[in-house]
């Protein structure tokens, strides 16, 4: 069994820095090259992290690249992943995996034919807080989960992002941009979704960019920015999922799960860590102590303090799974089901009808403390 698989990154924007920074912390992977349609961007990242800069075509033809990490913009995720598969490479994509379920199903057929694997972010559900919630559910501490709520609410990205246009066009919006974190976590906690329904709106048809260098420019909003969704899971649990970029302030918890025996108040699934609160029956709600899980440990500075950031864990788990001949957790089946759910929500918002899911999936294997430590490279 090879000790490490060679990784090449296509797309050298902001998120690429996170992958390059954290990759050395994990077993099974070695960053070797990067590429971008902007060769200057590829060269800058290559110099920063002591990698090889390639053209996209050159990277796909490289014999030392086993896995291509697709960090391009969502609109070209499908095309870039397809090219990597046709080149015989395994693929790990940033979220959203694709923008239409037909594209995800097509990639599955191509990957099966080529004998390669596909994985996709988000991997934040592998974090210590979310895996502790999984442990509480799996050990029956809450009884059967019957319902719950999710809320992701803010006032959009135009006040801080230098080029926020794509957030407000088809392929953007809070469901496709932030929904993967919430929905992937729900699926790993509870299981697959059977059908969805939603109401959606575009309260502000135009937005003003407030960030430099384009402050004052107007952008048109052509995708829903407020979505109120219902999800019915295959096991009978029912959830509300409210996502909006038209809210200045909210007191809702990011996620709450209601079981027959108790309730979990969960932290933001966009992050690996955070406080997890729990109550059983009528007992007072208490914040649980941090689990002895390596992905609970704060390891990175954040504007609001130290945080746990282990992005690249999903990529490392896929690489080790390939070498060990086991399923990987951030799987193609999970990614496709999440896309099915999200696009179903958007379709329901347009049609005002329930939408049945075309796909299903197994819950990924839990990642307990020992399994998580097994992903990490020995400390230097």
Automatic annotation (TrEMBL):
Keyword Oxidoreductase: yes
Keywords assigned by UniProt, alphabetized: Oxidoreductase
Occurrences of domain Gfo/Idh/MocA-like oxidoreductase N-terminal (ranges): 6-118
Database matches in InterPro entries: Gfo/Idh/MocA-like_OxRdtase_N (IPR000683), Gfo/Idh/MocA_oxidrdct_glycsds (IPR050463), GFO_IDH_MocA-like_dom (IPR055170), NAD(P)-bd_dom_sf (IPR036291)
Domain GFO/IDH/MocA-like oxidoreductase: 130-264
Gene3D superfamilies according to UniProt: Dihydrodipicolinate Reductase, domain 2, NAD(P)-binding Rossmann-like Domain
Pfam families xrefs: GFO_IDH_MocA, GFO_IDH_MocA_C3
PANTHER family recorded: BCDNA.GH03377 (PTHR43818:SF11)
Protein name: Dehydrogenase
């Amino acid at each position: 069994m090879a000790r490490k698989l060679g990784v090449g990154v296509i797309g050298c924007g902001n998120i690429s820095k996170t992958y390059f920074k954290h990759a050395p912390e994990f077993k099974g992977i070695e960053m070797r090259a990067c590429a971008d349609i902007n060769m200057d961007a590829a060269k800058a990242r290559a110099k920063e992290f002591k990698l090889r800069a390639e053209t996209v075509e050159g990277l796909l033809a490289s014999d030392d690249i086993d896995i291509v990490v697709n960090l391009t913009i969502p609109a070209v995720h499908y095309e870039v992943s397809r090219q990597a598969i046709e080149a015989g490479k395994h693929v790990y994509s940033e979220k959203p995996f694709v923008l239409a379920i037909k594209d995800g199903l097509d990639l599955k057929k191509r990957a099966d034919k080529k004998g390669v694997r596909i994985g996709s972010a988000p991997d934040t559900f592998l974090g210590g807080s979310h895996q502790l919630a999984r442990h509480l559910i799996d050990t029956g501490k809450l009884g059967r989960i019957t319902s719950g709520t999710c809320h992701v609410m803010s006032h959009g990205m135009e006040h801080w992002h230098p080029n926020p246009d794509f957030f407000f066009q088809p392929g953007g919006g809070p469901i496709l941009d932030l929904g993967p974190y919430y929905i992937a976590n729900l699926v790993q906690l509870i299981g697959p979704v059977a059908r969805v329904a939603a109401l959606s709106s575009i309260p502000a048809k135009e937005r003003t960019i407030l960030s430099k260098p384009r402050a004052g420019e107007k952008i048109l909003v052509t995708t829903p920015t407020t979505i109120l969704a219902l999800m019915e899971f295959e096991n009978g649990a029912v959830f509300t999922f409210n996502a909006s970029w038209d809210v200045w302030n909210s007191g809702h918890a990011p996620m709450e799960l209601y079981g027959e025996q108790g309730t979990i108040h969960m932290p933001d699934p966009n992050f690996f860590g955070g406080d997890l609160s729990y109550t059983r029956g009528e007992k007072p709600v208490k914040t649980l102590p941090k689990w002895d899980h390596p992905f609970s440990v704060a390891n990175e500075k954040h504007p609001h303090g130290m945080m746990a950031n282990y992005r690249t864990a999903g990529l490392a788990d896929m690489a080790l799974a390939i070498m060990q001949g086991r399923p990987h957790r951030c799987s193609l089946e999970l990614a496709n089901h999440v896309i099915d759910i999200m696009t179903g929500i958007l379709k329901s918002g347009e049609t005002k009808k329930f939408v049945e899911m075309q796909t299903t999936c197994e819950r990924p294997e839990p990642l307990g403390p020992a399994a998580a430590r097994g992903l990490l490279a020995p400390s230097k």
